[in-house]
């Protein structure tokens, strides 16, 4: 009997909308965002556009939380009722959220079917591209165990890069990681931040202007793409579509045959980065 494989991701993974619209085997467990004393389900009760409009007027920094265990269990039950017997869990870096632990705890208590969880050690679109990779393998007839093996092997070389005009939101949200050394070092520094092999933020480049920072980020992305034969790429923005399009255009000009996904980062990630972010995820597969 053939396996029926589903994918369950957290909303912080920013699975491309194009993928969600194309496939019916993907579910998303929403993270939680609290603004002005009210709790919202990420990308369910509040859209990125609504979030940034309210952020500009907020008296206090919003807060975030991982998906509740109950919401993850509910998504698993939905997939079970629809006939799926295997689930691939995809979460943002375990160093940036407790989501991986929640998914894993739910998976460990399942007895009637199999669920494996991938700690992508990435964030946003960089994590969501693992769902793209998984769907490619499912479409090619890979078994559940083979798909999990390739996904886990691909974590070590996959990266998320992002430019943000200010560090204040990362600092306020406690997600500063190894970027802390930049605070106060140079006035108006424009950092490019990446996830390292452990899924922790670190400053990979810095510049004195947005244009130079973007150029450095694009160069890093182009090198990673050029060095690997099997890649998936996505560009995402936080309330700055024009800047996202500039990054997209430069990458598309260099790699015209490469599919490049585009989208907005979720409100749960926007809490920690603020407006003006442009990020690029490069998911490096193991199969040629």
Q: Could you describe the 3D structure shown?
A:
With 288 residues, the chain is α/β, with parallel strands linked by helices. It folds into 2 domains: 5-153, Rossmann fold (3-Layer(aba) Sandwich); 157-284, Hypothetical Protein Tm841, Chain: A,domain 3 (2-Layer Sandwich), CATH 3.30.1180. Helices cover 37% and strands 25% of the residues. It has 10 helices and 13 strands. The strands form 3 sheets. It has a 6-stranded mixed beta sheet. A 4-stranded parallel beta sheet has the order 2-1-6-7, sandwiched between helices. Strands 4-3-5 form a 3-stranded antiparallel beta sheet, with helices on one face. A hairpin with a 5-residue loop joins β9 (190-195) and β10 (201-207). α8 (210-226) packs parallel to α9 (241-254). InterPro entries: DegV, DegV_C, DegV_domain_contain. May bind long-chain fatty acids, such as palmitate, and may play a role in lipid transport or fatty acid metabolism. Keywords: Lipid-binding.
Keyphrases for this structure?
single chain; 288 residues; alpha/beta; Rossmann fold; Hypothetical Protein Tm841, Chain: A,domain 3; six-stranded mixed sheet; four-stranded parallel sheet; 13 strands; globular; DegV_C; DegV family protein; DegV_domain_contain; lipid binding; lipid-binding
């Amino acid at each position: 009997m053939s396996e029926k494989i589903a994918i369950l991701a957290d909303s912080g993974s920013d699975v491309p909308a194009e993928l969600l619209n194309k496939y019916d085997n993907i579910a998303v467990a929403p993270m939680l965002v609290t603004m002005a004393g009210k709790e919202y389900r990420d990308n369910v009760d509040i859209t990125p556009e609504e979030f940034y409009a309210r952020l500009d007027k907020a008296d206090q920094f919003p807060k975030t939380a991982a998906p509740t265990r109950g919401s993850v269990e509910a998504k698993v039950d939905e997939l079970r009722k629809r006939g799926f017997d295997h689930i691939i869990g995809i979460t943002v870096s375990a160093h940036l959220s407790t989501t991986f632990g929640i998914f894993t705890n739910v998976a460990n208590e399942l007895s009637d079917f199999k669920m494996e969880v991938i700690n992508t050690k990435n964030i946003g679109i960089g994590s969501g591209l693992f769902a793209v990779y998984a769907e490619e393998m499912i479409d090619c007839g890979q078994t559940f165990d083979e798909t999990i093996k390739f996904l886990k092997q691909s974590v070590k070389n996959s990266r998320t890069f992002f430019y943000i005009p200010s560090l204040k939101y990362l600092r306020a949200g406690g997600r500063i990681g190894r970027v802390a050394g930049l605070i106060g070092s140079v006035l108006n520094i424009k950092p490019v931040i990446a996830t390292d092999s452990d899924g922790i933020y670190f400053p990979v480049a810095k510049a004195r202007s947005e244009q130079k920072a973007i150029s450095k980020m694009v160069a890093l992305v182009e090198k990673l793409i050029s060095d690997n034969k099997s890649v998936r790429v996505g560009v995402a923005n936080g309330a700055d579509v024009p800047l996202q399009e500039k990054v997209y255009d430069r990458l598309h000009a260099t790699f015209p045959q490469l599919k490049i996904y585009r989208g907005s980062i979720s409100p749960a990630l926007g809490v920690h980065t603020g407006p003006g972010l442009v990020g690029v995820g490069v998911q490096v597969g193991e199969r040629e």
